[in-house]
Amino acid sequence: MTLEDFYFISQIAAALGIMLSLIFVGLQIRQNTVQSKAEAAEASHRAMIEWYYHQSPENAAIMAKVAQPDTELTDAERYSFFAISMPLLMNMQEAHAKWVDGSLDDSRWEFWDAYANVLTFRSLADEIWEHRKALFTPRFRDYFQGKLDARDPSDVTGTWQTPHSPSEPLRAKSEGRKS
Fold first, then answer.
1. Three-state DSSP class for 67?
2. Total domain count for the chain?
3. Is position 128 within any domain?
């Protein structure tokens, strides 16, 4: 073997090494992406779980009263409902941002989208939204306003049940979501 043969063999070995390292880096990136999506899903659901754990009997009574059609709330109950609803909207905004950027998958987003329907079931949601929507990002404002605008007037005053099938939320996929 000549020196030139060793040179070509070393160049081939170097090229193979580079290709193998690029494959390794690609696999690492893929694994990190999967892990970050899992962490995003867990964080969004953990926020909701924390919200539920921190509810009091007084909050439950207010939410039950809000769920009744044609029930008037006192000013204190109205304020409490605002205080109960704002963390939900803030958590929903975070989940929406993660869904839009692709770090929260569609099946996890369906939960939040269905919950948005629950939050819009009564005209009190309009009042909360009107007073607090400036605190949210433009993209989330557009999303949630669309939920409010899409309500059937008969669905606004009486139930905690979600008025749509699980496949409906994904129709919004093309509206502002990164592919």
1. coil
2. 1
3. yes
Residue 20 included in any domain = no
**48: three-class secondary structure by DSSP:** helix
Return per-residue pLDDT of the chain as tens, 179 residues: 888 888 989 999 999 999 999 998 888 887 887 777 677 667 766 777 777 777 788 888 887 887 776 778 888 888 888 888 888 888 889 889 989 988 888 888 888 888 887 777 666 778 888 888 999 999 999 999 998 888 776 654 444 444 444 444 444 443 555 54
Tokens 């496949």 belong to which residue? 167
For residue 163, what are the domain limits? 38-174
CA quadruple 27, 39, 120, 79: dihedral, nearest 10: -150
